[in-house]
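Table S2 (text version). Query chain:
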Amino acid sequence: MKSLSLIFATCAIFFSASADAQTSKEILDKLSTKAKGWKTISADFTSNLVDKKANINRKQDGSIKVKGQKYNLNLPDYVVICDGKTLWSYDKKGNVVTIDDLADVKDGSFDPSEMFTIWEKDFRHEMKNPNASVNGTEVYEIALYPNNPKDKPYHTLTMYVDKAKMEVSKVVVKTRENSEITYTVRNFKTGSEFPDTDFLFNKAKYPGVEEVDNRL
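Corresponding structure-token output:
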């Protein structure tokens, strides 16, 4: 499940900015203001993990829905669902779902419902390059550093914000284990209507699923 914490910690790729901000603070302030006006978001994304030491180069696709404090994260091996109080972590290969009270497992860590405001309390930030380029596209390059890096599986998040679209086109995560994960967004939507049942685990959809309930 360690990979899930990295996924959660970098779900901040799913947002867009506005106006002509030139500093990291201006851009992030605008992102926070805009995100607070969204009732829901959904996105598809691709991640690429590179660990030269372990000779790993792995890509995977995923999707996410967020509605307030609720979220539904779908990955190749896992589905993670939260209704704001309960967290269901479903292992597709094992056909096992682990159930926890969110308050018991959150423990100050990041979850997708906070993806648009995480930098307000958890990060220092700086504009690394206001005139960077990604595949020929002009972008702002902003680095985020966690205030308590020992509590995180990473030490730096680098965001690349498309100047023309004012959207984050890429995020690079540098972990404490010297691996690097790049996230790119394929689709991004706001304002879709999601029923609350999208944020509840329905075991009828998973015949024979084994439940491991950690709730007291």
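Notes on Table S2: The two ends are 21 Å apart (CA to CA). The first helix runs from residue 2 to 9.
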